[in-house]
Specification:
6 helices, mainly alpha, two-stranded antiparallel sheet, 142 residues
């Protein structure tokens, strides 16, 4: 039995979302039909589903890769450093970091008076220095 309308819609949605060109699509169809067809309209239900599953897996891996890149960006590494200093200063509550305290401090005392996530890559080093100075002064009092 040939692929159904829902599979066709899903398949072409994924192909568009993943920006797969016509030549690559034909090669994928050729591979998933055991080298029988290059047109998705001639795919069998199980072949089409196997290709859909493959494309979903590709999509999920791409999403994770982008998320990993964002998580490990220089900006986020510096933001984590700032949060690490707040953690070391014991700005915590029962569930972890005391976000109210941190956000209030950022608004009132951080050198640009804005939320942590609004600091750019160029601005963050100075913010890190600022919070490290606070930590250093706490240790000096200590």
């Amino acid at each position: 039995m040939l692929r159904n309308k829902q599979q066709n819609k899903t398949l072409h949605g994924l192909l568009n979302e993943l920006r797969i060109d016509e030549e690559t699509k034909e090669q994928l169809v050729y591979d998933f039909t055991s080298k029988r067809e290059t047109s998705s309209s001639k795919m069998l239900v199980n072949e089409c589903q196997a290709l859909i599953n493959h494309l979903i897996m590709m999509k999920n891996q791409t999403s994770k890769s982008v998320k990993t890149q964002l998580d490990n960006s220089p900006e986020n590494k510096m933001r984590r450093k700032v949060l690490s200093v707040f953690h070391e200063m014991n700005w915590k509550n029962g569930s972890g970091l005391d976000w109210n305290r941190i956000n209030n401090w950022m608004d009132k005392f951080s050198y640009l008076h804005k939320p942590l996530n609004n600091y750019t890559k160029e601005e963050l080093p100075k913010l890190i220095t600022q919070v490290e100075q606070i930590l250093k002064s706490q240790y000096a009092k200590g």
